[in-house]
Amino acid sequence: MGADAKQDSPTHDVVGALNCVRERIEALSSTQNGRRVDLVAVSKTKPPELLQAAYDAGQRHFGENYVQELVQKAPLLPPDVKWHFVGSLQSNKAKILVSVPNLFVVESVDRKKTATALHKAVAKTDRNEKLKVMVQVNTSGEESKSGCQPGQTAELAEFVVKECEHLELVGLMTIGAFDTSDEPEAFKILNKERDAVATRLNRSIKELQLSMGMSGDFEAAIRMGSDSVRVGSTIFGAREYGNKVIQG
Ligand SMILES: *Cc1c(COP(=O)(O)O)cnc(C)c1O
């Protein structure tokens, strides 16, 4: 079997890789001040069998960033999976996204229009709880990355809290830039933005989680206060689109 075939095959050692990531998170527990760090397994483009293997090893939080893919995969996995939507969301897809009964959180709210669309979509379902959302912040300044601009975060967060009663603001998310330093700038910015949101909403920062850190930088993210890391390729193998391998 060639390396390419192996990457996408159910025999890719998902469980070994998952356990390795868990151990790396655990090893940092002394820096976490008693915080629990959630691991979200980002499974975009990966076949359901690989997700099921991670599920069987105890993984419950999964992240996807295409609405259609999430909607198709959700019924193929057990109903107690907690789905995180982490992709950019067009407001006309809010309704179908929200139709996934075990959608746990939408981490990628980056404009009022998206927040409003989610709020209205939830109002039309029979969900009896608010839908958890995070505000995504563009901390890298790269136009290709989504997220609101730092400096607009508090206003958007306030909009969610005051105008979208069917949504519950639980924190902030960022992707960040490629940065191998011990204290990536993006993560400093997200911490600052959380301070600004906490001040504006008169909340404690403990009530606002940070979702930051991916395969390449989740350890730095934990040291810098992340509550939730989103790890994809390190668990499931590199992603392929056509013949092109996409990392990160
Ligand atoms: C793909 C993706 C991840 C996971 O990235 P890896 O580098 O594969 O760990 C995390 N967060 C978001 C928003 C993503 O789109």
From TrEMBL:
CDD domains: PLPDE_III_YBL036c_euk (cd06822). Keywords: Pyridoxal phosphate. GO terms for molecular function: pyridoxal phosphate binding. PROSITE patterns: UPF0001 (PS01211). Its cofactor is pyridoxal 5'-phosphate. The keyword Membrane does not apply. Coiled coil: none annotated. Residues 19-239 form the Alanine racemase N-terminal domain. InterPro entries: Ala_racemase_N, PLP-binding_barrel, PyrdxlP_homeostasis. The modification N6-(pyridoxal phosphate)lysine is found at residue 44. Belongs to the pyridoxal phosphate-binding protein YggS/PROSC family. Pyridoxal 5'-phosphate (PLP)-binding protein, which may be involved in intracellular homeostatic regulation of pyridoxal 5'-phosphate (PLP), the active form of vitamin B6. PANTHER family: PROLINE SYNTHETASE CO-TRANSCRIBED BACTERIAL HOMOLOG PROTEIN, PYRIDOXAL PHOSPHATE HOMEOSTASIS PROTEIN. This is Pyridoxal phosphate homeostasis protein. It comes from Gracilariopsis chorda.
